[in-house]
Amino acid sequence: MSSFEGKVIAITGGASGIGLAIAKTLHQRGAKVSIADANSAALENVAQAIGTDDIVAVQCDVRQMKEVEAWLQRTVDGWGKLDGAANMAGISSPMPGKGSMEEATEEEWGMTIAVNLTGVMHWAV
């Protein structure tokens, strides 16, 4: 297993699913992890569960460029650098538990594109 000791990693969608698994694994390997997610309640649970100074959990809507920039700047300001990143934020349309893709409204589809595509662009810029 490789060590991430002293590395600073930023992760979108880090409050659940694959993003959370990546955050936990990197933290166990010594990384300082900055997690962004739109779900503030889930973020609070993650921060409490891991309970360390090496985790920062920030509510951030990846559809909003200014929020992504502010979160990444906060990460760099706090730890002096950013060594890596994982863009794990993503949603399906319609929202989980609300039916099939064929039942998605135009608004739900637009939100899916905004998170899954535009959010990646905001992250990469």
UniProtKB/TrEMBL annotation:
Q: What SUPFAM superfamilies does the entry give?
A: NAD(P)-binding Rossmann-fold domains
Ordered alphabetically, the record's keywords are: Oxidoreductase
InterPro entries reported in the protein's UniProt record = NAD(P)-bd_dom_sf, SDR_fam
Q: Where are the transmembrane segments?
A: none
Q: Please verify whether the record's keywords include Oxidoreductase.
A: yes
Superkingdom assignment = Eukaryota
Annotated GO molecular function terms are: oxidoreductase activity
The family classification in the record reads:
Belongs to the short-chain dehydrogenases/reductases (SDR) family.
PANTHER family the UniProt entry points to: 3-OXOACYL-(ACYL-CARRIER-PROTEIN) REDUCTASE (AFU_ORTHOLOGUE AFUA_6G11210) (PTHR43180), SHORT-CHAIN DEHYDROGENASE_REDUCTASE FAMILY PROTEIN (PTHR43180:SF66)
Q: What is the name attached to this protein's record?
A: Uncharacterized protein
Q: What does the organism's lineage look like at the top? A: Eukaryota, Fungi, Dikarya, Ascomycota, Pezizomycotina
